[in-house]
Q: What sequence folds into this?
């Protein structure tokens, strides 16, 4: 067995139970993206990042470690690592992040909030009170830990009298919109992805995107949440020509990301197949999920394919830069 | 030879009951799975329903390699809740074998 599943999951569980996040994230790393936007604290409607974009630089660093050591001493290291990790967080040592990567992911959140502001959406932000929604422990099937965490997240939202949340990534969207209501009694929260909110607004493009863009649907948006038309509508309204790859919409092909932390090489094979599909129909691609972005970008490095987050294109078309 | 154990399936349930009884073993799921793992999902479900605990555990890596991408589920003619089932098997392994969770 390449990576010891039990110990990797153990570290995630301990981090979530002890530190409230699957990976430690400093206060500034969580909220720096919002600088200069004057988003009010709290409110009935809030943007909810779920820390996904902010966690990506740590996840990239952790994955580099995992793939480097997958077949050697890491097996032992993870076991000891988990014991030590309970007392002092070892994950920061495993996840030195890179400043330009941090800026890159922060810029995506900045784009999204800007778009909402331009669309005249009235929203606040919980800043350091915002919590990770728990998608990873949910997906790995650590049900009791997930359930306890979900309740904490919901209580936090209720404490701040939040009634509506605008999510920014598919995984947090699915957690808050479809998974939480199944496990939390009398759940009352209206949840929409920013793509839905923007598609319903009367946002007008200021600039034409005269480009052919290959679209990569996220499995979660397309197959779990049925969010398929909104990103197309927003790009097309701005004049972009959408190119559909062979697997698209409800038949979209996974980026491989969910297997990344346990089976990096298998995940890479899936990402390579997907990039092959995208690159065979165009040279500019667009993703709408931080995990897709990371995995598609890594596999596209050696290909003639640019990879942008959808918010990069949208901010370009709809906001005055 | 694995022993048939009809009680095993009782241990496999997560936020919803394990449910693969409608599966007609058509193979669509296996053919479409981007991970290309022969066992996923239908053979794994057979192991669970027949109670082959040893076979399920021998293939822990496969259980955890599923991407939860729902390519299989989207195309399953019998609407088997494939992804929920896989997560239920994970929960059983995490709880009973790995002893993860809150205990
Ligand atoms: S696609 Fe559905 S019915 Fe066909 S083998 Fe898979 S689970 Fe069974
Ligand atoms: S959800 Fe899992 S089993 Fe189904 S196609 Fe995706 S990776 Fe394969």
A:
């Amino acid at each position: 067995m390449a990576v010891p599943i039990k110990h990797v999951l153990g570290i995630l569980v301990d981090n979530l139970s002890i530190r409230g996040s699957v990976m430690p994230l400093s206060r500034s790393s969580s909220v720096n993206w919002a600088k200069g936007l004057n988003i009010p604290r709290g409110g009935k409607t809030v943007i909810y990042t779920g820390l996904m974009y902010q966690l990506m630089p740590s996840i990239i660093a952790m994955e580099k470690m995992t793939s480097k050591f997958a077949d050697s001493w890491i097996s032992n290291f993870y076991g000891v690592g988990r014991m030590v990790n309970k007392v002092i967080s070892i994950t920061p040592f495993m996840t030195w992040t890179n400043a330009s990567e941090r800026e890159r992911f922060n810029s995506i959140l900045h784009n999204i909030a800007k778009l909402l502001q331009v669309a005249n959406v009235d929203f606040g932000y919980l800043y350091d009170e915002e919590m990770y929604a728990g998608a990873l422990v949910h997906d790995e099937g650590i049900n009791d830990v997930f359930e306890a965490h979900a309740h904490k997240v919901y209580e936090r939202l209720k404490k701040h009298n939040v009634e509506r949340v605008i999510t920014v990534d598919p995984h947090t969207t699915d957690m808050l919109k479809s998974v939480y209501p199944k496990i939390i009694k009398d759940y009352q929260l209206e949840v929409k992805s920013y793509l839905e909110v923007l598609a319903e607004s009367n946002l007008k493009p200021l600039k034409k995107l005269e480009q052919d863009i290959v679209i990569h649907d996220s499995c979660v948006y397309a197959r779990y949440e049925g969010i398929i038309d909104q990103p197309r509508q927003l790009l097309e309204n701005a004049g972009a020509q959408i190119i559909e790859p062979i697997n698209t919409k409800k038949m979209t092909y996974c980026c491989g990301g969910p297997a990344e932390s346990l089976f990096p090489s298998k995940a890479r094979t899936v990402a390579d197949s997907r990039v092959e599909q995208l690159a065979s129909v165009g040279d500019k691609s667009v993703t709408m999920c931080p995990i897709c972005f990371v995995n598609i970008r890594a596999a596209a490095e050696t290909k003639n394919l640019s990879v942008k987050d959808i918010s990069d294109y949208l901010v370009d078309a709809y906001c005055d830069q | 030879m694995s022993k048939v154990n009809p009680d095993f399936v009782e241990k496999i349930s997560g936020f919803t009951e394990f449910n693969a009884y409608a599966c007609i073993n058509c193979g669509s799921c296996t053919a479409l799975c981007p991970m290309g793992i022969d066992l996923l999902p239908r053979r794994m479900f057979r192991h669970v329903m027949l109670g082959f605990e040893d076979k399920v555990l021998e293939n822990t890596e496969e259980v955890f390699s599923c991407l939860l991408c729902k390519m299989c589920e989207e195309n399953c003619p019998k609407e088997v809740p494939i992804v929920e089932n896989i997560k239920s098997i994970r929960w059983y392994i995490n709880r009973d074998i790995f002893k993860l969770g809150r205990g």
Q: What stands out?
A: The longest strand of chain A covers residues 45-48. Residues 99-118 of chain A form the longest helix (20 residues).
